[in-house]
Specification:
The structure holds 2 protein chains of 2 kinds.
Chain A (H helix, E strand, L loop, with lengths): L19 H5 L34 H13 L3 H22 L3 E12 L2 E2 L3 E8 L3 E6 L8 E5 L7 E4 L8 E4 L19 H17 L3 E11 L2 E10 L11 E7 L5 E7 L5 E12 L18
Antiparallel strand pairs in A: 1-2, 1-3, 1-12, 3-4, 4-5, 5-6, 6-7, 8-9, 9-10, 10-11, 11-12
Helix pairs in contact in A: 3-4
Chain B lengths: L16 H5 L4 E2 L1 E5 L5 E6 L4 H12 L2
Antiparallel strand pairs in B: 2-3
Classes of the chains: A alpha+beta, B alpha+beta.
Chain lengths: 298, 62
């Protein structure tokens, strides 16, 4: 996480401490096929229409049930934790099978208190860290950026669109010029960094009982079937999370996060990323990440 | 130049004459030329500030 994006959040509203041992042994779904609709029903809490009143339970049994309820988390809560952990595991497993991909990548960030306009780019990514981006819509249409870890002196090459496109810039990817109007350097673009941040924040928050799940359900996002995870982070004991609230859309077929929005402690959006037209393992070659590529303008 | 109190001479290269003469490809490109007019050091891109300063100091001693 870039320091400018770091958020220090206040005290929680209410989140009971979890029994860490209990969390460790929570069963995790280990099916690695595509997520099915049955895995995430539209509502986890819809009361049964078939429920009918029955005879009163014996007093002793009621007392026993009450005691059990006091010492164990509600089933729905445990179920949500299980599903979240399963989602995280599936994203990691899915991304582990990816070597390269292309996508239309959109981002919108709040920099120095100002929410900038959305940027739309064509993204090419190859593991471990080769990135080519071309801005395909205004206001930066025509701009290109290339970063290949271990090449070009570890510099970010940028060729601006329009009249500024006469020169190719060779920049420190984390330098002040490259970070102008950006919360993150180009080295943090892509699914891998996003998944790593999500898993770290979600697992830590679950471990410490600092995650309040607001939504965990099916939702269509940019024309794709997804599982939406909306959750609030309520840190204690000096812990920090990337955001106070997040809304993440995980593609059910790709099992990758194709949308992620993060909100600060004032519930202001500070960054929003989305991926569309994602194509995995397309066989990108070194030429796709070469400044000598004739289709590029470096 | 006035705003930043720059007192040393700065070459204006709006026509890209210097840029093309040295076959410059990327901005910034730093060339150090010694008193005999020989290019002694070149660096492309940001960074390497310490090495650049050390090289300037060494060349000044020649």
């Amino acid at each position: 996480m870039h320091p400018r994006a770091e958020r220090h959040l206040g005290a929680p509203h209410h989140s009971p401490d979890l029994d860490l041992n209990t969390l460790e042994v929570l069963p995790v779904i280990t099916k690695f096929g595509p997520l099915s609709r049955n895995d995430f029903p539209r509502s986890n809490f819809r009361p049964s229409k078939d429920a009918t009143p029955g005879r009163p339970l014996p007093y002793g049994l009621l007392l026993a049930l009450l005691c059990a309820a006091l010492v164990t988390p509600p089933i729905a809560e445990a179920d949500q934790r299980e599903r979240l952990l399963s989602l995280v595991t599936r994203m990691e497993s899915s991304y582990a099978r990816v070597s390269d991909y292309t996508a239309v990548f959109r981002k919108q960030e709040r920099v120095d208190g100002k929410l900038l306009s959305e940027e739309t780019t064509l993204l090419k990514f190859h593991k471990p860290l080769k990135v080519y981006m071309k801005w395909i819509e205004d206001p930066s249409k025509g701009t290109e950026a290339l970063y290949v870890d271990g090449s070009n002196g570890n510099k970010l090459l940028v060729h601006r669109g329009g009249l500024l496109g006469i020169l190719t810039l060779s920049l420190d990817p984390r330098g002040s010029l490259a970070m102008t109007r950006n919360l993150h350097p180009i080295t943090e673009v892509g699914f891998g960094y996003l998944i790593d941040g999500l898993q770290r924040n979600i697992r830590t928050a679950l471990l410490h009982g600092e995650l309040e799940v607001i939504r965990l359900a099916e939702e269509t996002f940019k024309g794709r079937f997804t599982i939406v995870v909306e959750a609030k982070f309520a840190p204690r004991a000096g812990r920090t999370y990337h955001a106070s609230r997040m809304v993440c859309h995980i593609d059910t077929e790709l099992q990758l996060p194709i949308g992620a929005a993060f909100y600060d402690e004032n519930d202001l959006l500070f960054e929003h990323y989305s991926y569309s037209d994602v194509k995995l393992n397309v066989g990108l070659t070194p030429l796709d990440f070469s400044r000598e590529n004739k289709a590029y303008r470096f | 130049m006035k705003r930043f109190a720059i007192l040393y001479p700065i070459a204006i290269d709006n026509g890209f004459t210097i840029w093309d003469s040295y076959k410059t490809r990327y901005w910034p490109t730093l060339l150090l030329i010694d008193k005999r007019g020989v290019v002694r050091y070149a660096h492309v891109g940001e960074g390497a500030y310490d090495l650049t300063e050390q090289t300037i100091l060494r060349l000044l001693l020649e």
